Amino acid sequence: MSDAIERAALLAGLQEATGRIEAAVQARAYERFEQTSESKLCTATVNLRQQLVDFQFLQANAMRELDREALAEEVRSTIAAAQAKAREATDRIAAEIYAELGLS
Hints:
single chain, alpha+beta, Ybab, Chain: A, 3-stranded antiparallel beta sheet, 60% helix
């Protein structure tokens, strides 16, 4: 098979995979991924697209417990950990679809 034909076939497979991944993610849009900080100060919840959908401080007066830089880092790392869980789920979806299409 010529390089152009191989590239066209690969492109078609990748386009199909992209469409199927998008459909799978959309079908599971209800899924949420939650992470509570190690200090139990806050909880972040994201959706499968890693978008923040909820954030709660679990302790009253969080600003009195930590200085603003430490609080910001606690919030950032908690959100990042929740997003990592969502990314892992999305990666599993993509891997399954790529395997089904023989693209893995």
